[in-house]
Amino acid sequence: MDKHFFSKINLDIISDTKELYIGYSGGPDSTALLHYLNSNSDIKLTAVHINHGISDQSKNWEKHCSDFCKQNNINIICKSIKIEKNKSIESEARRLRIETFKNIVPTSANLVLAHHLDDRVETLLYRLFRGTGIKGLSTFSDQTKLGTLNIIRPFIKIEKSEILNYLNEYNLAYVEDDTNSDNLYDRNFIRNEIIPMITSRWPKASQKIAELSDFANMENILKEAYLDKLLCDLDVGLGIKLDDLASFKRPIRNELIRYWVRKNGYAVPNKKNIDEINKIFIDSQPSRKSTVKWSKSDKTEKPCKIFMKSNYLIIEEDYGV
Questions:
Q1: Which stretches of 12-170 are assigned E, i.e. beta strand?
Q2: Is residue 143 a part of any domain in this protein?
Q3: pTM of the complete model
Q4: At a CB cut-off of 8 Å and minimum separation 6, what does 196 contact?
């Protein structure tokens, strides 16, 4: 096995951890991650397999995961989720996975996921095609806190081809998700069609796109430090004084509103929402009934509304959205 592969794995992020929970689908990425940690760490491991029930092979995959863990003396927890047919399969599956992990992983432990460099590229392109800002370009990092869930990703600099080489080197069996070849799903289309076409022309494209994500992450850190200071100076809680908000140039005002909303735990307003907020509350004379509402279509974040009260812009959860 190429030593360069092992040098790119960051084990420092788990050095102070006594217990790890590994997201284990049975696929190539999570199989390599679980095997690697079991072979190179003395930390107590628990694999978590979430059965989505989408494929006819779901039960077989769950059995494969249970058998693999039994053979390697690894504790495993298997949970099933049910995705409603009238909702987006991709976004709803992600929401339910996160919810399940939060219910299983103790706050004292870390959840380890097998996201790798190619996943970052896929995510960045997916967000780019759907529309995103600088924050969306940062994709995900090696350490993330999602509510009470501490997530770490040791494989974030590893390429998919290196993972497949690792599996071959150690003769590890894994499951092939038949839905991964269905280009009806946006991410599959990007992974199966767009990325191979790009890398056939520019072989180093994936690394360069991942570097862009790193640069965007640094820019976001600097921007948020600046916005945090602005909010602190304004002594903002659930309300911002309209006169203070109007004193900022529009680009700064827009970012300040987005950051303020996100810090309060609500769905971040898109460009259309921001334009509406400016039009109603800054560019004209708002009334007591003036309100702007929005929500995420996948319901992954709390819907909210903004309205005026005593010359303050107030934000609240909107249960009617």
A1: 19-23, 44-51, 75-80, 110-112, 143-146, 149-152
A2: yes
A3: 0.83
A4: none
Cα distance between residue 75 and residue 72, in whole Å: 9
Query: What number of CA atoms fall less than 13 Å from residue 15's CA on the CB side?
Result: 5
Both 58 and 135 in a single domain?
yes
Q: Residue 65 belongs to what domain range?
A: 3-210
CATH number for the domain harbouring residue 164 = 3.40.50.620
DSSP string, 205-245: HHHHHHHHHHHHHHHHHHHHHHHHHHHHHHT-SSEEEHHHH
111 lies in the same domain as 259 = no
| DSSP bridge pairs for 50 | 79
- The encoded tokens of residue 184 equal 């009806």
- The type of residue at 72 is N
**Closest listed residue to residue 295, CA positions, set 263, 319, 271, 321:** 321
Domain count of the fold of the chain: 2
Question: pLDDT truncated to tens, each residue of the chain (321 aa)?
Answer: 666 777 888 778 877 788 999 999 999 999 999 999 999 888 899 999 999 887 888 899 999 999 999 999 999 999 998 887 766 777 788 888 999 999 999 988 999 999 999 999 999 999 999 888 888 898 988 998 888 899 999 999 999 999 999 999 999 999 988 778 889 888 899 999 999 999 999 999 999 999 999 999 999 999 999 999 999 998 887 789 999 999 999 999 999 999 999 988 888 898 999 999 999 999 988 888 899 999 876 566 788 999 999 889 999 888 765
54 and 187 assigned to the same domain: yes
